[in-house]
Amino acid sequence: MTSPDEREPGSGPTEEEVRVLLPSSLTVEPHGDVAVLRLCRSAKRNALDDPTVLGIEAFFSAPPRGVKAVVLDADGDHFSAGLDLSELTERDAFEGLEHSLMWHHAFERLERGRIPVVAVLKGAVIGGGLELATAAHIRVAEPSAFYALPEGQRGLFVGGGASVRVPRLIGAHRMADMMLTGRVLDADEGHAVGLSHYRVGAGEGLGRALELARTIASNSPVTNFAVLQALPRIAEANPAEGYLMESLMAAVATASDEAKQRMQDFLQKRAGKVGR
Hints:
- 47% of the residues lie in helices and 13% in strands.
- Strands 1-2-3-4-6-9 form a six-stranded mixed β-sheet, sandwiched between helices. Strands 5-7-8 form a three-stranded mixed β-sheet.
- It is of the alpha/beta class.
- Helix 3 links the parallel strand 3 and strand 4.
- It has helices at 15-21, 50-61, 93-111, 128-135, 162-170, 172-181, 187-193, 205-217, 221-236, 239-255, 257-267, and strands spanning 26-31, 34-39, 69-74, 117-121, 124-126, 138-141, 146-148, 185-186, 198-199.
- It folds into two domains: 4-217, Alpha-Beta Complex (2-enoyl-CoA Hydratase, Chain A, domain 1); 221-267, Orthogonal Bundle (Lyase 2-enoyl-coa Hydratase, Chain  A, domain 2).
């Protein structure tokens, strides 16, 4: 099999090649130019072990050929109950550091990759499960979803990126409350503070996520690249650097042939209108 580094730029592995590389705890389901990556450890409430985390990294390091958006789903009633407790082996401080960095690398591949990701949240979205969910770009929550960071009650501290991603969504003070008191947020509370973008009915999460992913996949690849790569960096930059990066990215996007064609379609009234 050709390694990802030996391929032509943008070609990517086939879906079959991706399946061979993934652990049994992950499956890939094609839906045209959208792929569903599914956690398949329902007997353990989709708890995340090392092979699963490394499989997520492998998938987003070399997504299937032709895929323009991904839906992150889970078997059973729960998105993910966090770190598989069997992974809590005896480690010295440096080994613990390396394990945390492994999670960081994997989830960064998802968050800062080239393909937008829509996560379907239901049941437990706690600990490492919340860390995985907040690495996705869009989150759709069903009524059963609940959010927690129990590490504080177990003498631990988050290690998969929560201390960076979660405060950006809900504020450090709300995250402190969850860790200090063990507070659990239900689907409505989580939506109100910003943990989900869309709140849907029971069993409607996957359908809504696929609908959103198809819309995203129809965007210009340059625009999706700008949103995933430039926008987070602009938000983190000082205003002067942010404005410059925005101008550069706007110039690149506007100069693309696809942008020019889409603008012509709009001006000639061949494109759909914004709004209802």
